[in-house]
Amino acid sequence: MDGSLQIVYALLGTSPQLTAAIVGLVVAGVFWRKMPRAAMLLLLASVLEMAVLAASGWYHMVYFPAALQAHDRTMVELTRNMAFVGFATSALHGLVFGLLVWAVATGRGRPVPPAVPGR
Q1: What is the pLDDT of residues 29-52, one digit of tens each?
Q2: Do 11 and 57 form a contact (C-beta atoms < 8 A)?
């Protein structure tokens, strides 16, 4: 199968995450003036998520099948590489989630207690 078609299939498989990342880009642009720090963190998280999805899709749909067909690596090496890529992908998704949590929490001060009437 053609490599570009395999990438399209990989992107279709990750379309919910990709759609959320694209929406994140749009939301970051809309709120850039009002909340620049939160928008910057959202933009960074969205771009990083899109990069992780593209790299993971390439690895799983292009590189790995080609390496299997080439028979130039042992199954142990391919399995080790797959585990490493899985761990790295999960760690980067965790980083993205952390950036999103940071974006939600940034710029919020401590709540002011309500005024007590009569004082």
Answers
A1: 999 999 999 999 999 999 999 999
A2: yes
Three-class DSSP labels, the chain: CCHHHHHHHHHHHCHHHHHHHHHHHHHHHHCCCCCHHHHHHHHHHHHHHHHHHHHHHHHHHHHHHHHHHHCCCCHHHHHHHHHHHHHHHHHHHHHHHHHHHHHHHCCCCCCCCCCCCCC
pLDDT digits (tens, 9 = 90+) for 59-81: 888 888 888 888 888 888 888 99
Q: Do residues 39 and 32 make contact, with C-beta atoms less than 8 angstroms apart?
A: yes
Which band of pLDDT confidence, cut at 50, 70 and 90, is reported for residue 96? very high
Contact 65, 6 (CB under 8 A): yes
pLDDT of residue 61: 81
Phi-psi map region of 71: left, alpha, beta (phi>0 left; psi -120 to 50 alpha) = left
